[in-house]
Amino acid sequence: MYFVCRWREESPFSKRVVALPDSTVLDWFRRGWGHDTPEEWISNELGGDVYGLDSIFDEARRQNLPPPGSVDQLRALLHEHLWVEGDDKDDYIRLGEHALRVRTDDDEVDLAYYFIDDEAAASSPDRLAFPLYGSWPLPANAARAGALFDNDVPVRTVRVAGAAGPESVFSVRLSWESPDTDRNLDLVGAVEFVGLGLPQLSAHLQSVEASRVDDVPYDVRLLRALIVSGEHDIGPALQRYARLPGYSPALADLVPVPAADPLPSMVAPLSPQPTESLVHLDTHIVQAARYIDTFFGFDQWFLFDSRWAAAHSGLARSLLRYAAHWDPFA
């Protein structure tokens, strides 16, 4: 079984993935039931703090509650005694036969955590491959030209003039304060650039007139502002992104610079890239884990085309879903 914590983790993916010896979610809760020091036990079991999870174990000890004997009993106990913050506690605690999904917040950012058994992990790669992927970076190999990627996750579509090929590029930015919603779990989904592959993206975006940039999603505007005229690939824009300072980069901080600038950038001021930031550039996927600080850790930006997605369909679909809903089963 696996535990995943989607939070301000120190990992480049801002999540923690832990393998557990238990066969089911029920088994794990039963094993910890009645433990004398729930907070310490959880930290040892799950690799660190999990905000609010100790509350149900504390309440079980305080009320001398018997351990749950079934999934239905565990569900009832979780809904009654597990502490979550939010307007709809019942909707934020979701327990099925093979997975528990919980949403809450720590007064700074939203967070979600999941317990996922082996059966769910094996049967639902389109939902779980990315949440369960623990090591930076994502793989780089891609399918042959003409390979098709069938995507069933809602995305925001952008069509750039002159892009009429069979491929698409997908943009997934995971930030702590999405400019679309001002939250980090209520994301509005990835962006799909229709009709081109990743090697063509930079040139096509340069053709977008500045006066029309307001008509496209925020992340497209941010990416466009990071591209310098004449660049033939998107990698330098991601490298500039990794150098942006602050919790939530704003378009107001991006200004054009003279074309004759020997080190052109669209960012003022542009900080040195923190040594913790990671950028991985390949032909069909580029990915950045931008280091913010010791409190927030990282945010992420992935740009990949349908050739990469066709070679890693589970990862691609689950990553797109990760940007669309806090619950991978939604």
UniProtKB/TrEMBL annotation:
Protein's name in the database: Uncharacterized protein
Lineage: Bacteria, Bacillati, Actinomycetota, Actinomycetes, Micromonosporales
Species of provenance: Actinoplanes philippinensis
